Amino acid sequence: MAVTRYHRYIGELWDDLNLEELVSELSDFLLQSGFGQEMGEWDEDSLQALHDAILEALVRRGLLSDEDLEKLMSDQGALDQFLQKTVERLVREGYLKTSEAEPFHDPTGGGERGAQGPPVKFELTEKTVDFLGYRALRDLLGSVGKASFGRHDTRDLATGVEASGPSKTWEFGDTMNLDVSGTLLNAVAREGLRVPLHVDYEDLLVRQSEYQSSCATVVMLDCSHSMILYGEDRFTPAKKVALALSHLLRTQYPGDSLHLVLFHDSAEEVPLSQIARVRVGPYYTNTREGLRLAQRILRRQRKDMKQIVMITDGKPSALTEKDGSIYRNPFGLDPRVVALTLKEVASCRRQGIPVNTFMLARDRDLVAFVQRVTQMCRGKAYFTSPWSLGQYVLMDYLNKKVKKLH
Fold first, then answer.
1. What is the pLDDT of residues 198-245, one digit of tens each?
2. Which of 29, 184, 370, 375 has the greatest number of C-beta atoms within 10 Å?
3. CA 64 to CA 54: how far, in whole Å?
4. Peptide bond preceding 196: is omega within 30 degrees of 0, i.e. cis?
5. Comparing 254 with 217, which gets the higher pLDDT?
6. Is the pTM of this model over 0.90?
7. Quick check: 19 and 93 in contact, CB under 8 A?
8. Phi and psi at residue 196, in whole multiples of 5°?
């Protein structure tokens, strides 16, 4: 007679790994802002860098026990298998996606590269981008507390479901949130106490709630080369702030809109889903072109409130000429560059668009320029660091929810 024996299943280390904690620890690697490479992709050589980053995260975070980690480190074959299986699980669960690169043909006639076929490229998925935005938002606002759901309060009143103001006579288009007692009293005052009681349109009263407005925001992100120079990476924290702000709007202010503009030698709009993949470069700072593009975007938005959030560490040093060429002058504040940039700031003021500037440097000339921008457009200027940038940007945005707007 056949006998079946059952043994306790012992899972593999890579199956028990907490991927959310791992991806959170890998955020700096996944959002790296190096110059001259495409973001979010690793070729065959840099796959080893991904393995090294995973191993470093495991050691730093303590996602494996000391005993398990010691066993892996003592057996190179087991370590390589663990890292390979971990990457495969990241792909399987939707944190990364893979695609094969084009085959490499040897010009000397040696044929395609190796017997293992073309290298595999890895890209961040939207799931990872959204998760990194959630973690950035949680880390930046964790000490502040939860923000209530809703939109931005104003001084005006509107008819709505939640009553927070006096009743008013119903007008065509108002929400039918009837003040029943007030409506009946109006009918009684007009016809007297009788049955049946006829209620006319002029008797109708509706309850009012605070009018809540939506906001259109353009984040102007400086990606000139200075954002990764001078001994620190200023661009990765700025990208984390944009990810956190995007997640905040999607989950708590669904009526608001957010657009991202990168400015360097020129300027372009980048979909928020691609924010994690962008990198620094080229070299100069075309603030004027960024402001022009931001205004064009905001003109398309039918929102009561509009604003520009500019994150930068450099003075304006480039202009786009009428023929499309780029004028560059990195030496000091070029009077022509400054004058044309301030002209766009004045245009923002005429349209009622405040420009809130978050500075990551404190050069004397740059401070003077930012103060001039602030005075012209009635915005605000924050002189901060990469470590405190997130709190400043997010709290400035959240403060608009509780401030009464004129």
1. 888 888 888 776 545 678 889 999 988 888 777 678 888 888 888 888
2. 370
3. 12
4. yes
5. 217
6. no
7. yes
8. -75, 155
Taking the C-alpha atoms of residue 290 and residue 295, their distance in angstroms, rounded to an integer, is 9
Report domain 134-150+214-402's class.
Answer: alpha beta
Q: Where are the alpha helices (DSSP H) in 31-125?
A: 47-61, 66-74, 76-92
Task: Give the separation between CA 52 and CA 43, rounded to whole angstroms.
Answer: 14
For residue 98, list its beta bridge partners: 122
Question: Which sign, positive or negative, has the C-alpha torsion 379, 369, 240, 219?
Answer: positive
Q: So where are the chain's domains? A: 13-124, 134-150+214-402, 155-212
Is residue 400 predicted with pLDDT exceeding 90? no
Q: Which residues pair with 183 in a beta bridge?
A: none
Most confidently predicted of 166-170, 190-194, 266-270: 266-270
Coil, strand or helix at 156? strand
DSSP-assigned letters across all residues of 302-356: --SEEEEEEEESS---EEE-TTS-EEE--SS--HHHHHHHHHHHHHHHHTT--EE
13 contacts 82 by C-beta, under 8 angstroms? yes
Tallying the residues shown for the chain, one arrives at: 406
In three-state secondary structure terms, 383 is strand
Distance CA(399)–CA(406), nearest Å, equals 15
Tokens of 186: 């109006």
pLDDT above 70 covers a percentage of the chain that reads 76
